[in-house]
Automatic annotation (TrEMBL):
One GO BP annotation of this record: protein processing
Family affiliation: Belongs to the peptidase A31 family.
Lineage, broadest ranks: Bacteria, Pseudomonadati, Pseudomonadota, Alphaproteobacteria, Hyphomicrobiales
Protein name: Hydrogenase expression/formation protein HupD
PANTHER family per UniProt: HYDROGENASE 1 MATURATION PROTEASE (PTHR30302), HYDROGENASE 2 MATURATION PROTEASE (PTHR30302:SF1)
Length: 228
């Protein structure tokens, strides 16, 4: 009997704080474990429907993600089988979740759907922090999330091997420029960059909108036309 095709997938957007949980979890899984040829470990990011072929090829699918379960922030929850699409679409946290629900529907419509499907999700603490990293409560759930994935794989007869030494950060399956260390170290201080689209932009004396918005738009259009 052929070994099942396994896909361990992390999805999410690293740029929006806890939205990056799925990618950070799959990065860490890759750093710490070697997998056999029948197992693919993948950063799915926000690729949405571009992931459909990988889903179609998988007999066993494990997804790490940030999910709005309506639970206390930082809570880890596993969902299995037919329940997974319901939670991926329960509330639109970001564009990638709706896209991934569509990916599953497309795979099913095309007749290739995983035999076993597990969603390992964490309830976000903070999403509206552009350029932010995982909050401590969410980052603390990476190890338990990986343990959950390992147990699921073991239950289905799939073995992975701990690396003698975890890979260095530069041996990432994700973007080299977005490794956790670079991402967190390179972020501007809060007083140098607005992070939340907060009211300081509008309330400060440093910026004022035009007194006559329509007149200003007309002026800009005419200026652009003259320069073209």
């Amino acid at each position: 009997m052929d070994a099942p095709a396994v896909l361990v997938l992390g999805i999410g957007n690293l740029l929006w704080a806890d939205e990056g949980f799925g990618v950070r979890a799959v990065e860490e899984f890759h750093r710490r474990f070697e997998v056999p040829e029948n197992v693919r470990v993948m950063d799915g990011g926000t690729q949405g429907v571009y992931l459909v072929q990988y889903i179609r090829e998988a007999d066993i699918l494990i997804v790490f993600d940030a999910v709005d379960y309506g639970l206390p922030p930082g809570t880890l929850k596993r969902v299995e089988g037919e329940e997974v699409p319901k939670f991926l679409g329960a509330k639109k946290i970001s564009l990638h979740q709706t896209g991934f629900q569509e990916v599953l529907a497309m795979a099913e419509m095309l007749g290739d759907y995983p035999d076993h499907l597990l969603l390992i999700g964490v309830q976000p603490v903070e999403l509206d922090d552009y350029g932010g990293s995982l909050r401590p409560e969410v980052k603390a759930q990476i190890d338990p999330a990986i343990d959950t994935a390992l147990a699921f794989l073991k239950d289905h007869g799939v073995s992975v091997t701990p690396r003698g030494d975890a890979l260095g950060e530069d041996n990432t399956i994700a973007s080299l420029e977005m490794t956790l260390g670079r991402y967190e170290a390179g972020r501007p201080a809060e007083d140098e960059a607005f992070r939340h689209g907060d009211n300081r932009v509008l309330a400060s004396e440093g910026w004022r909108g035009p007194e006559d918005f329509d007149a200003e738009m007309t002026r800009l259009v005419h200026t652009a036309a003259e320069q073209s």
